[in-house]
């Protein structure tokens, strides 16, 4: 029934696929003689001169904002996609015409209980930015504070669910028809996209991400690095997110920043430092750090400080993940490939029976070419991506949080090199990682961990004598368990004996029946 209602949309998708020759991409990937001939026949009369990645990008842009979002998420899965397609998908633009201001104001009134003209001292009808999920209006609170109000696009949930249903169907077809379909994990990719998209539809979640990041960067020693807007919680709901208005220049406007007196090389280094603080100190990082979401303050009191915007996608890392990544990076810096292989095996991310020396050789072949170049030419993000691709051959399951980390690292690295082409990311990162590792081992780290656990131990230690007494006074259940196991063993033996006897009787009956049947002939 759902498919019948979605039939017009499906016809439109098929038309766009044919227009941009995506059918030829699918058929040529099947690697069968008849499919190759069929692809040539279907191509007749269609000038498909553009590269396959460009055709895919244009098709997704024509199919609408949900497919654009899907392509953006898909571009992060470089462990699954060919490089030319992944590179082209990163160019997808999430820009759509704004929806009517009357709808935005109606959404605000329904969510917050009052008309925007009552809630705010002033509210700008014309949006300042519009994307597939939401658009932003500037406003002023009654106490004079300037804010930005992000409003969810009406009717998005219904549209998203319809397109997701079609994507699941297409993913199942890809998995069944294309030889590499299972390796590409299309259904898992769609499920991952489903999660990201529904998270972005909850602006309360985005507001909480913003609040956490702001709290992390108001700690001593960090306040001069990154500005995160304050959340106005009284003006937030699931479809509305109100935050402090930020002023600055997009980080990509390098000449404008230079004219205002910003130290561009220092800005590039600070971007790398902010990334490593988020990843290794906090284990909570902004995972959508493309130039459109990062501004730089041009106000005299905060000149040159980064400004973070759009907190719909964030990543988080466990203590295990952080330790693993830090040790891997340091092993790379030292070109200790045996240690990298050992870390992968010990972490359980590759099977325990993987031959360490074989895995080490594969990692060396992956990484050694980079070390023959000047350090300033080495891409740490590319090294990490190649490592994931190499590990896949050894049946490594890439973790979602590491995929987000890889995407963010590539964004940060590209941003840093755009600001300062001579930026040496390895040289900037290595001292930070070494200091971080030193802080996590040794006497200071031990004392800090003991202090962290002291509150829990303060509650547990007084109860230990009582718990020990209860355990000693409790009746020993071992003899009972032993008796029950012996009874089960005897029952199993009896059942086995009965089954053997039954099998023998059945065999005799079959033989007798066969003899009688043959004798009748």
From TrEMBL:
Transmembrane segments: 498-518
Any single biological process term in GO: ubiquinone biosynthetic process
Pathway stated in the Swiss-Prot or TrEMBL entry: Cofactor biosynthesis; ubiquinone biosynthesis [regulation]
Entry's Gene Ontology molecular function annotations: ATP binding; kinase activity
Pfam family name, one: ABC1
CDD domains: UbiB
UniProt key word Transmembrane: yes
UniProt keyword list: ATP-binding, Cell inner membrane, Cell membrane, Kinase, Membrane, Nucleotide-binding, Transferase, Transmembrane, Transmembrane helix, Ubiquinone, Ubiquinone biosynthesis
ABC1 atypical kinase-like domain segment(s): 91-343
Family membership: Belongs to the protein kinase superfamily. ADCK protein kinase family.
Protein name per the record: Ubiquinone biosynthesis regulatory protein kinase UbiB
Annotated organism of origin: Verticiella sediminum
Lineage of producing organism: Bacteria, Pseudomonadati, Pseudomonadota, Betaproteobacteria, Burkholderiales
């Amino acid at each position: 029934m759902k498919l019948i209602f979605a039939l017009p949309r499906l016809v439109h998708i098929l038309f766009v696929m044919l227009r941009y020759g995506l059918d030829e991409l699918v058929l040529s990937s099947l690697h069968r003689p008849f499919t190759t001939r069929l692809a040539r026949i279907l191509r007749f009369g269609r000038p498909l001169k553009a590269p396959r990645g460009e055709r895919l990008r244009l098709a997704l842009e024509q199919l609408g904002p949900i497919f654009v979002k899907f392509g953006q998420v898909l571009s992060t899965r470089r462990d699954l996609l060919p490089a030319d397609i992944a590179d082209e998908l990163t160019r997808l633009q999430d820009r759509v015409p704004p929806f009517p201001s009357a709808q935005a104001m109606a959404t605000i009134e329904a969510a917050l209980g009052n008309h925007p003209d009552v809630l705010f001292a002033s509210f700008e009808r014309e949006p300042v930015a519009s994307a597939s999920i939401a658009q932003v209006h500037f406003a002023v609170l009654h106490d004079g504070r300037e804010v930005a109000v992000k409003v969810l696009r009406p009717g998005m949930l219904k549209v998203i669910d319809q397109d997701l249903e079609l994507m699941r169907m297409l993913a199942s077809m890809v998995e069944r028809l294309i030889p590499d379909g299972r390796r590409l994990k299309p259904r898992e990719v769609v499920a991952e996209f489903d999660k990201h998209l529904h998270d972005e539809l909850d602006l309360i979640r985005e507001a909480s991400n913003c609040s956490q990041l702001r709290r992390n960067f108001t700690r001593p020693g960090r306040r001069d690095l990154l500005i995160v807007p304050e959340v106005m919680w009284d003006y937030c709901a699931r479809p509305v997110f109100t935050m402090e208005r930020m002023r600055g220049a997009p980080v990509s406007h390098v000449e404008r920043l230079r004219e205002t007196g910003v130290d561009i090389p220092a800005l590039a280094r600070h971007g790398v430092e902010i990334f490593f603080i988020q990843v290794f100190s906090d284990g909570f990082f902004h995972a959508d750090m493309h130039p459109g979401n990062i501004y730089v303050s041009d106000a005299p009191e905060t000149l040159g400080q980064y400004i973070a915007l759009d907190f719909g996608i964030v990543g988080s890392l466990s203590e295990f993940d952080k330790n693993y990544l830090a040790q891997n990076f340091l092993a790379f810096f030292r070109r200790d490939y045996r240690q990298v292989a050992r870390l992968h095996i010990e972490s359980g991310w590759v099977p325990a029976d993987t031959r360490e020396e074989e895995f080490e050789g594969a990692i060396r072949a992956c990484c050694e070419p980079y070390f023959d170049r000047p350090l300033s030419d080495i891409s740490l993000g590319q090294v990490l991506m190649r490592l994931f691709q190499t590990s896949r051959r050894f049946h490594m399951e890439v973790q979602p949080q590491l995929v987000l980390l890889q995407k963010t690292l590539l964004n940060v690295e590209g941003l840093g090199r755009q600001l300062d082409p001579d930026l040496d990311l390895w040289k900037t990162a290595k001292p930070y990682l070494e200091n971080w590792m030193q802080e996590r081992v040794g006497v200071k780290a031990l004392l800090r961990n003991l202090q962290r656990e002291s509150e829990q131990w303060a509650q547990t230690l007084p109860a230990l004598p009582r718990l020990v007494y209860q355990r000693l006074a409790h009746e020993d259940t071992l003899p009972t368990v032993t008796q029950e196991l012996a009874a089960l063993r005897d029952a199993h033996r009896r059942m086995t004996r009965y089954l053997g006897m039954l099998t023998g009787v059945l065999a005799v009956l079959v033989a007798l029946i066969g003899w009688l049947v043959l004798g009748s002939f």
